[in-house]
């Protein structure tokens, strides 16, 4: 799945690290079902904390967006994070005996701090395109992972629920919408040939750093 034109260019510019992210051992363990539950829950608690900061970053994108249509697209992502993705985490953790107040009291792991504060700093220091470059690996990487695992994962993987969430038409639509948002902002700010813009190298670097931080997030889950 390409999710527009800009995303594949950024992804292909950091292909080895993208591979490390989307083909990580943690992801393989979700597909085969061999990932220990304890590691999955450690990841989910941190991801709960991650998604709160990530929602703030998308809310920042609402304030930085160029047009009302873009504001709506960013606001829809805030809504999806808080009302669809976060409840999945709350439900799975509650079933495992971890009610939401316990999640709220959890301490952020260094990997969570590093990733979320990087994204927020990129957004505060830069414009909406810098912010979207930092946000894209998260949204679109899980879109790719969800699609692939829904085809390749063991039918009876205990992580089917998780896989189905990211493969679902709702999440895939979010990815398609983000790809279109990204293309529109890139065209507006960089012109018809974004790859030759003087900003292109910095944007690729921001995307690459966020992708490395995704790898660090899976590593934290496996540790
Ligand atoms: C760390 C991380 N990256 C991406 C996603 C998908 N929104 C997530 N839930 N957590």
TrEMBL record:
Enzyme nomenclature, EC number: 3.5.99.2
UniProtKB keywords: Hydrolase, Thiamine biosynthesis
Keyword Hydrolase (UniProt): yes
An annotated Gene Ontology molecular function: thiaminase activity
InterPro entries per record: Haem_Oase-like_multi-hlx, Thiaminase-2/PQQC, Thiaminase_II, Thiamine_Salvage_TenA
Coiled coil: none
Cell cycle listed as a keyword: no
UniProt xrefs under Pfam families: TENA_THI-4
Top-level EC class as recorded in UniProt: hydrolase
Thiaminase-2/PQQC domain residues: 13-222
Gene Ontology biological process terms in this record: thiamine biosynthetic process; thiamine diphosphate biosynthetic process
Pathway listed: Cofactor biosynthesis; thiamine diphosphate biosynthesis
Xref: CDD domains: TenA_C_ScTHI20-like
Catalytic function, reaction form: 4-amino-5-aminomethyl-2-methylpyrimidine + H2O = 4-amino-5-hydroxymethyl-2-methylpyrimidine + NH4(+); thiamine + H2O = 5-(2-hydroxyethyl)-4-methylthiazole + 4-amino-5-hydroxymethyl-2-methylpyrimidine + H(+)
NCBIfam families cross-referenced by the UniProt entry: salvage_TenA (TIGR04306)
Summary of the function given for this chain in its UniProt record: Catalyzes an amino-pyrimidine hydrolysis reaction at the C5' of the pyrimidine moiety of thiamine compounds, a reaction that is part of a thiamine salvage pathway.
Protein name: Aminopyrimidine aminohydrolase
Organism: Salipiger marinus
Organism lineage: Bacteria, Pseudomonadati, Pseudomonadota, Alphaproteobacteria, Rhodobacterales
């Amino acid at each position: 799945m390409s999710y527009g034109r800009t995303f594949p260019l950024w992804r292909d510019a950091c292909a080895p690290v993208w591979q490390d992210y989307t083909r990580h051992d943690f992801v393989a363990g979700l597909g085969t079902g061999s990932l220990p539950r304890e590691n999955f829950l450690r990841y989910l608690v941190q991801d709960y904390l991650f998604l709160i900061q990530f929602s703030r970053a998308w809310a920042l994108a609402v304030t930085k967006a160029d047009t009302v249509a873009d504001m709506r697209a960013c606001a829809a992502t805030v809504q999806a994070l808080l009302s669809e993705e976060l409840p999945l985490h709350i439900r799975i953790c509650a079933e495992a005996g971890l009610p939401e107040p316990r999640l709220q009291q959890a301490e952020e792991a260094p990997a969570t701090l590093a990733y979320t504060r990087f994204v927020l700093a990129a957004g505060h220091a830069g414009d909406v395109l810098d912010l979207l470059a930092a946000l894209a690996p998260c949204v679109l990487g899980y879109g790719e992972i969800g699609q692939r695992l829904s085809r390749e994962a063991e039918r009876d993987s205990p992580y089917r629920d998780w896989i189905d969430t990211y493969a679902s038409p709702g999440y895939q639509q979010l990815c398609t919408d983000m790809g279109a948002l990204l293309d529109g902002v890139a065209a507006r700010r960089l012109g018809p040939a974004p790859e030759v813009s003087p900003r292109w190298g910095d944007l690729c670097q921001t995307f690459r750093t966020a992708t490395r931080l995704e790898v660090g997030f899976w590593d934290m889950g496996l540790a």
